Amino acid sequence: DLCLGLYAQALDDSGFGYDIWSWWRGTPPNNILDLYTDGVVVWFCSHTFPVLTKAERDAIDYYLSQGGNLLITEQDIGWALVEDGTAESAAWYRNTLLAEYLEDDSGLKTVAGVAQDPLSNGLEFSIDLGSGAANQYFPSLIDPISPAQTCFIYSDYTGPYTGTAGIRYSRNNSKVVYLAFGFEGISSQTQRSQVM
What we know:
This protein is an alpha+beta fold.
């Protein structure tokens, strides 16, 4: 799978050890998630539906309650859980990801870090073409809900909102980064490795 390979290459380039839990195995059980509370779980939602089933949302809640760290990424999470979801899935989106869903398709393809942000300062990249997956059809526009903070913006955004493309927060010994676009869409391998 092209997308999985892009994640694996970025992890390899960054020197991180990792295991892969493929979607066809179902939702990872709690005893598996417990093995990764000292590391980071990268939750790639892919551009498939359903996005984040109730069982997957429960698994993420469990993992975070155990002090786990999460990078969750994909372009249609907000659309699937808020616009096309239920009241429960929309509440989960706001309460667990600490994001306010604004637009399904920002139409924007250039992402930049936020000045002085410890994760993203100095980064800027395209999520269109290049050596990426070229699959970013609906990069979403979001806003952080406190204590979350913006860590990536669409650098060419000119609308009434903050132009937020990614957020981060720390809460109850857990750290979360939510990218409202697919990491696999980053158009340069070097930049994918830097972001990872």
